[in-house]
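User: Okay, second chain of the day. Same drill as before: sequence in, structure tokens out.
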Amino acid sequence: ERLKHKNRASTVWDYERLILEEFPAIFKVKCFDNMVSDPDPEKRTRPGHILIVVIPRQTETLSVNAHPMVNGAGLKEVCAFVKALASPFVNIAVRNPVYEQIQVRCTVKFKKQARAGYDVDRLNHDISCYLSPWHEMGYRAGFGWCVRRYEMETFIRNLDYVDFVSNFSMLHITDHGQGNYHLFDTAEGHTGDEKIEAIYPVFPWSLPVPIKRHFIETMDQFKTIQPEITGVDELEIGSTFIIYSKK
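Assistant: Same drill. Structure tokens below.
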């Protein structure tokens, strides 16, 4: 690596390898060239700018729905390090990733109805592990991710304690900063001609994480239910129920 980058930051590969070598506490680095972290997609492309996103190294006790961040001093240290190795004409910014939350919503028939309450908690945990970038069975911590509906639904159907799954959809919750949130339900696709098959990132520098509590209902018979757009009465204060008012 030293022979390739010669201790200078010229390409995206150079920036990423130099940072990982210098900072052992950083787990992953993603460098976006000609980009700034603007919420507006039309304003993100900016020649001469480098956007670096860093993810701290995880601990063994890290929760599956955690949002690990590098502190402000750490971000400044990384920025100062790469600026010393890069061209003086390049504008460099270092930031943490955005964490876009996903909630699975479904109606499930369990094989053992007598312990449905226990199985709901078990299913909630298994779904979170499957979606988590910090769990060995889940999505890896990678940018440019995609959560496909059929993969998530198939995972639930294949669990040994699940008999049948219906009414399946996913909520996608994104924090745009300054009190602005975006809430999208894949069930919206069932009202039109096209079916929403996947959730894609709103920000290129984001990672998907599961919400703490998924919306799981139970049934005692095989019944196909078409998913409907989530109503206000089904949202939870503190997680999916979002109110925004301008001051």
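DSSP finds five helices and ten strands in the chain.

User: Thanks, on to the next one.
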